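Saturday, quiet lab. Running sequence design on the structure tokens for the scaffold JK sent over.
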């Protein structure tokens, strides 16, 4: 996105607190049409009882643009001459709620077993170049504002790198929502995001300025972020060679067909012996038989054998 687009998006977000939404009602046929559009472009499916949620999320954008109806907005959205509006649309319909060290059992599994397992396996894996043997690649899919990716980087820097100084780490965080990707790149958070961080890590890996907490450069160097749609087949095929993928609290918004499609891409993105972690309330049962279920204390992982 260019500088002009960034400015427009920033102005729109600032307006959300001051623009009063007009009371509009979306007809059922239009809801079904917009729901289909969302599903075909993202895989996210809005159930019938979520119509009110979609209405409320789109009303402020409609009011900001000076439009008069949901029909008028949907017509604008579908125009090929206005692709930028999709960025605002995705930001309106996606849910982003996360914080540092949200899933401690998964981080414990990484620290106690998986990092070392990957390092040891690469020592004897044929066909790898020297720089590949000493590099761990992790993908935080649907990374939201970056807390998950940075949490993994902190665990690696604190517990793994001192034992294996020659090993490097690359973490890529992706999300469909441009706003949260920008936040992730900045690495500056409020108290809500850091409420679950161990005090030792908070002191070691953050610059504290009043109520703002900025991730230190020594952690930021491991992580990069970009906008990406998990339902985009072409983009998904570019994401290859990962040792671990985190994709938490995403599948719950998909129907079975969408889950199968996305999980198949995630499987192909993993190296042999790599792990997939999903949310604690999610499962691959009925979705994929390609992974081996591996138990860890208080959590499970899905391994590509």
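Result came back. Writing it out in full:
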């Amino acid at each position: 996105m260019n500088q002009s687009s960034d400015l427009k998006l920033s102005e729109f977000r600032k307006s959300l607190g001051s623009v009063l939404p007009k009371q509009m009602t979306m007809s059922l046929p239009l809801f079904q049409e917009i729901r289909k559009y969302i599903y075909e472009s993202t895989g996210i499916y809005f159930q019938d009882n979520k119509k009110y949620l979609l209405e409320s999320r789109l009303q402020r954008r409609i009011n900001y643009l000076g439009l008069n109806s949901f029909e008028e907005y949907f017509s604008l959205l579908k125009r090929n001459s206005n692709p930028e509006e999709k960025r605002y649309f995705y930001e309106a319909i996606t849910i982003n709620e996360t914080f540092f060290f949200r899933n401690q059992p998964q981080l414990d599994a990484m620290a106690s077993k998986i990092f070392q397992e990957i390092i040891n396996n690469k020592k004897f894996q044929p066909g790898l170049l020297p720089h590949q043997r000493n590099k761990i690649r992790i993908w935080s899919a649907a990374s939201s504002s970056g807390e998950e990716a940075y949490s993994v980087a902190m665990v690696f820097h604190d517990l793994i790198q001192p034992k294996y100084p020659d090993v490097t780490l690359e973490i890529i965080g992706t999300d469909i929502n441009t706003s949260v990707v920008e936040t992730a790149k900045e690495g500056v958070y409020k108290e809500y995001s850091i409420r679950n961080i161990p005090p030792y890590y908070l002191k070691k890996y953050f610059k504290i300025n009043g109520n703002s907490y900025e991730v230190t450069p020594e952690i930021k160097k491991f992580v990069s972020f970009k906008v990406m749609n998990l339902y985009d087949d072409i983009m998904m095929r570019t994401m290859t060679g990962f040792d671990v993928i985190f994709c938490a609290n995403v599948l719950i918004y998909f129907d079975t067909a969408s889950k199968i499609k996305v999980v198949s891409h995630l499987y192909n993105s993993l190296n042999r012996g790599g792990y997939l972690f999903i949310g604690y309330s999610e499962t691959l049962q009925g979705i994929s038989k390609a992974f081996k279920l591996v138990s860890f204390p208080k959590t499970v992982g899905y391994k590509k054998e």
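Notes for JK: The longest helix spans residues 104-123. The longest strand covers residues 270-278. Ask whether to fix the surface positions before the next round.
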